[in-house]
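Structure tokens please, single chain.
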Amino acid sequence: QVQLIESGGGLVQAGDSLRLSCAASGRTFSSYAMGWFRQAPGKERQFVASVTWGLSSTRYADSVKGRFTISGDNAKNTVYLQMNSLKPEDTAVYYCAVSVIRGIFNYWGQGTQVTVSS
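Here you go.
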């Protein structure tokens, strides 16, 4: 069984930066991709960013393009999310996810809270 733990969330002001980290543990495995999702109160969980290791490909939601950067280490099953120029609308619980099979996010973390004040 794979477990993912997110960290790095907190309370910041608009325009500030924050770096989220996610580490997978529990058993040895090789992931196809890892990504970040977020969920604000009363809203559905939405895609934020992902990295596909083999293709060296990254994807971003339109709302975060140019502000967020995803990176990581496939060998260590670790992923990061550098968030710059944060906005109040970025406030949400951010979840890390890992894909073992292409197109499917198999495992999810418990989330880390990011709050951006005006």
